[in-house]
Amino acid sequence: IRSPTLSQQSSTPDDPRAGWKMQALHAWFSAPKTFIARRIATNPNKKLINSIYRILTDRNKTFYKSINEFVDRTKTVLASPVIIGQESYLAKIRKFMNYTEGYFKDAPRTDMLYENYDQESVSTALERCLHDLVIKPLKKSIMDYLERRYEGDGSLRKLRKNLAIAARFSHDDLQLSRSVLLPGRKTVEVARVFFDKMISEYSPVQKINNLHTVIMQIKQDTESTLGGSKYLSADDFIPLLIYIIAKLEMENLLLEADYIEELLPEKLMQHGEGAYYATAFTAALLYLKDDVQ
Which of 22, 56, 141, 180 has the fewest CB atoms inside 10 Å of its own CB, making it the most exposed? Predict the structure, then answer.
């Protein structure tokens, strides 16, 4: 994309949230044989989930009091005036969840879970329970906080202006390969459906699942289009994603990018396809917010 190109940004990113993940994203898209949708575990053993849920919601245990006090305190903090330039409070929510997960492993009566299930299954089920108990009751407060944060620093105002500009970009403006065609109306509207569904979810993992569907739809539609490229590279994919977001005029996706990146489990942000989806999504929105000319 004109001045600077995304290929230049991907190798020397200025934003601290990019870095090696952008390089990995580029390599990943350049090797289509590795583009295999590995399902992010969101539905582990129901018996295991129920066992963990009962422990976390037992009023006689520390977990119940700790989680409820944190949720109540966080609602108050998120409703207070936003200080521009201050670190996002969402990082503290993720830290609390990480701490709870660590404490859970050493708590009484949880050892039997690790005897009957492998550690990965327990960790996945525990993460899902914490989404229900921590993130779900905080979702509205979080989104209100992010909206005030981005309105306060002018990001949403800039994004609204830039979306209108980017929606008029031509094939040459996006610097797409000649064999790659601009997305049609069908692709854009399918993306709208799953972006809307993503917005309705409270779990960052479920949001990533819907983002995965959007990404796969863009790839499949582009790669199957007559005259289209057989494989879609990162240099072409991210401009296409930028174009689709601009056409949809969905400024609230900027809030979604922050929500996902801050609250998604660290293991999914550092490894696997979840990291790539989140990075591509964030890269597209950062361009729309800051670099459209």
Answer: 141
Q: Could you tell me the pTM of the whole model? A: 0.81
Q: C-alpha angle with apex 88: 97 to 158, nearest 5 degrees?
A: 140
- Closest among 96, 82, 99 to 146, alpha carbons compared: 82
**Kindly report the CA angle at 228 between 225 and 30, in degrees rounded to 5?**
120
- Residue entry with tokens 């590995």: 38
Amino acid at 172: D
**Sorting pLDDT into bands at 50, 70 and 90, what band is 133?**
very high
Six token digits for residue 185: 């109306």
Q: How many CB atoms lie within 10 A of CB 94?
A: 20
- DSSP label at residue 12: S
Q: State the Cα–Cα distance between residues 82 and 184, nearest whole angstrom.
A: 40
CA-to-CA separations, 144 to 47, 132, 154, 198, 266, in angstroms, rounded: 35, 19, 15, 17, 24
Give the pLDDT score at 227: 53
The amino acid present at 80, given as its one-letter code, is: S
Helix (H) or strand (E) holding 229: none
Q: Which residue has the tokens 């929510």?
A: 93
Compute the distance between CA of residue 100 and CA of residue 103 in angstroms, rounded to an integer. 5
Radius of gyration over alpha carbons of the chain, in Å? Answer: 20
Side chain identity, residue 205:
V
How many H helices and E strands in the chain?
Answer: 15, 0
